[in-house]
Design goal:
three-stranded antiparallel beta sheet, about 55% helix, alpha+beta, about 500 residues, four-stranded mixed beta sheet, 24 helices
Length: about 500
Amino acid sequence: MTMVLERLSGPSWSVMVWPGRRLVLTEAEAEVIATRPFQRLRRLRQIGLYGHAAPLADHTRYAHTIGTVWWTAELMRSLDDPAADSDGPRHLAAMRQILADEGASLDLVVRLFALIHDIALLPFGHTLRFQLGLIHGADSFTRCFRRAVDNIGDEIRPNMADRPSAEALLWHLELAVAVAHAPRLLAGHTPAIGGPRLDTEVTDRLMPVLTFVYDLVHGVYGADIIDVCWRDLFAGGRVWDLPASLPVAGQIIVCRPGDPAWPAPGRTMPASIFRYGIQAMDGDRVLMDRLTDLSATLDLRYEVAEKAFFHPRKCAADTMLDKALRSVDDHGGGDLSAGRPPFTDLDLLEMGDDAFLDLVAQREAAIGEGVRAARDLQAGRIWPEMVHLDGRGLAALEDQVCDSLTAPAGRSSAERRLAGELGIPAEHVALRLAPRRMQAKAPDTPIGWRNGQAIPFDRLCREQGLPLSAASLPMRYAGLRDLSLYVREGATVAPITAGRLIEILRGAACA
C-alpha cells in the first residue's frame, strides 16, 4: 500500500494558477482532472452572471479549484514546518497515522477534497441555490456530490491500468466525500455519503481528521476563501494577496466537547477533534496583527459579496434568470413553489452555465414571443431597474409580504399586479428580493488564545471588546438585503413610486 500511495502522490504535470505561481499536480489529481465531471467545472463561472458587469469575471470553477489546491498546499507546508514554534508537525503526524491505519494518506485526502469541493455545483450554482432558492432541494448537495464522485469513479476504473492504484484513489475520493459532510456528521446527521467501506464506525474513527481537513480547505478561513478573495477581487478590478502573517499563524487545534471552539453544541462524541485556526498568542503577548489581518481577509469576502454578488447589473441578470425559470415553470414545466422544478438537479449536474441557459431559452421560446427574459439575457440586454428599496425601504414591508415574495408563485403573483398598474404584459416585469440570509458563514474561525484556549473569532471579538469587524459581519451581510423592480428594456410605462410599489406588494400578499 505504501508504494501505491507514493505512486498516487507522485508528480504528474504542472499548471500555472497565477503569474509566478505554479502547482505540480499529483498523479491522483491528474486522474481526477481527466474526467468529465471535473472538466464540467470549466463550463461553470465562478461568480455566475457577474460577467455582465465585469468581463474579467468569466473565470471558472475549474480555475478556482486548482487555485484552492495551491493554497491548501501552502497552508499545509506552513503547518508541517519543523522550524515553526508550534505543535503542527506533531498533530499532523497523529492525523497521518489515523489515516494510515485506514490505508489512506492525509496529504492526498486534503488535496483531493480541495480539488473536488465544488464538484456538486449546478449551473449558476450559488445564484440558484442561495440567491434565488430554486431547483436545489434539502438533499441536493448530498445527492449531487454522491453522483459526481460516482461518475468520476466510473471513468477512473477503466482508465487506470494499475488496479490497486485505482482502488486506492477511489478510497481517497470516498474520504473526501466524508470531509464535505463533516459538519453534518459531527452534528449527528447521517446523510448517505458513501459505500460499504465508509460505514458509521469508520467515519467515527476518522472524525477528528475530517473536521481538520474541512476547516483547512472549506472553513470560514481556509484555502477556498483565500482563493475566492484572491481571484474574485481581481475580476472586479482589485489586486490582493494574502497577508504574510496568516500562513505562519496557522494552527492545528485540539478541540473537545465543551470547549469554546467545539462546533457541535450538545454533542459529546468524539472525545476530541482537530481543527484549523489562527494562533494569536506568543507566550503572554497577544499578536494583534494576526487578528487584524484575519479580520481584513474576512472583510474582503464581504467585499466580494457587496461588489460582485450585489452588483446592480448582476442582480438584474439574476432576476432575469429567475423570471425565465418561473415562466417555464408557469407553463407546465414543473412546480417551483411545491419543490418540483422544471429541471432536476441530477440532470443539471451534467451541464455548464451556457448549456443550461440555452435549455431555458428553448423552453421559453416555445411559450410565445412575448416571453424573452432568457433570450434577452443571452443577448446581454439587461433589463433596467425601475424602483429600488434598500434595507430602510424594506423595513416598511411586513414579514408576511417578504415571505410571500420568497416563494416563486408569490413573485409571479406580485408581477401580474404590477403589470396591471404599469399597463404592460406581466412577461416584461420582474421582481427581485434578496434572501434573508446570504451564503456567508459565521466568522467563527478558532483562535488560539490565553491559557491554551481556542475561541471562535466572532465570540473573541465580542468578549474582548476588540475593535475588529468579525462580530458585526453577519449584520453587514444582512444589510445587503434589498428589493428591486425591473421592466424590460423598451417598454413604455407610467412611473411608479416606492410607496406605490409597497402598496401593491401588500395587496398581492393578502390576495
